[in-house]
Each structure stands twice: as structure tokens, then as C-alpha cells.
Amino acid sequence: MSTPKAFIFDCDGTLLDSMGMWLGIQPELLARYGFSLTPSDFARFEHLSLEAECHAYHDVWGIGESGDAVYAELESMLRDRYATQIEARAGVRAFLDEARAAGIPMCIATSTPSHLVQIGLEHNDMAGYFSGITTTAEAPRPKGFPDIYDLALSRLRDAHLVVDCDPCDVWVFEDALFGLSGAGAGGYRRVGIFDPSGRSARRDVMASCELFIDEFEELALADILAYGGF
Fold this sequence. Notes:
41% of the residues lie in helices and 11% in strands. The protein is globular and about 55 Å long. It is α/β, with parallel strands linked by helices. The chain has a 6-stranded parallel beta sheet, sandwiched between helices. Helix 1 crosses helix 3, helix 2 packs across helix 3 and helix 3 packs parallel to helix 5. The protein folds into 2 domains: 152 residues, HAD superfamily/HAD-like (Rossmann fold), CATH 3.40.50.1000; 66 residues.
């Protein structure tokens, strides 16, 4: 058995039980402009950064004075929810404690702006586990590609938290199929987490990862150490 060199976590739907909020807040925003839309109407934008997504709302539906104005409005709504409503997924802190005790560097790769992620982590007393937050807005391509995970890993190398580390030595934790696909294309090992509030079918998540869980309560570090791919 070999200890993984690093863990890279998605945030929404993976660390935080926030996808139900996300699926409701976008229709709520569009309802302010007279649109009656369902969560599925937003699925085509989900892989984008939040800022790019808001620009798409402006371009596709013509809402707001600009994409920047739409972003500012949605960002204000989100700040309040991350600070007061969003809770951690079941069992996640116990797993993070185990990984930290083993000395495994951990960071976050997300499509959500880093300051919102930070608010959600602080609300749940989880900020201290992670060495940094990398967002899709900083990467050349969205999460269907490995770019964001490569950038997060590069930052861990630059911070001297990992050395002699290839993607196959790193585990990515994701709930979304496009994230699992992008991580797999980059050669990363993957823990797929089913989020019943998300858009990905359980069977599809299960088929797109090396290890699958419904909740972190099912996962121990020993399960990853025992994986035969190392």
C-alpha cells in the first residue's frame, strides 16, 4: 500500500450539501426578471465558472444590464446562503481529520468563486483543512477537462507540499460527471460521491470513478490505501 500524495476536492455537492440551494437559486434569480424556468434549464451552464454562467444568462435570456450586473446580484444572494444555510455533507469532517492526520495535502478545485467557498467552509469550521482553492475561472478550460486539477496540483508543487507527484498519485473527489470525466482524462484517481440533490445519476457516477460512495461516512482512508492502482 502507498499513501496518496494529495487529495483534490470539489466543493458544492462534494464537501458541502449545497446543490439543492444551487438548483433553486438560479430559477429564483430568473423569476425576478419574469422567467419561469426549471433547474434542468441551467444544466448546460453547470460546467462554467459562476461569472461565465451569469454572462451566459445575460446573453441567452437578456436579463440584467450586463453579465457583470447579473453576477453581482447572484453573488449577493449566494453570500447570504453560504454564510447561514449551507452545511457539510455527512461524515466529511471525520474523513478530513483522518487525511490530515496522515499528512496528506488537501486543496479544493471548484467552479464556485473562492470567496464564496471560503464563506461556506468557515461556516462549517472546515477552512483549516485545505491549502488553497483553485477555480475554473483561473483555468484555461472548464471542468470537463483536467486543467483545473492540473493547476491545483501545480500549486501544491509550488508550495512544496508535494514532490515527485504525478496525477496517478492524486485522488480527486467529485460528484458531477463532467468533473469526474475531466479528472479521469488527466490520469487522476477518482472518488465519486453521489449527490441526490445534483443532476448526475447514481449509476453514472458509480461507473465514472475508481471508488464510489453515497456519503463520506462510508469512506475510510484505508479504502484508498488499499486501492490496487498504486
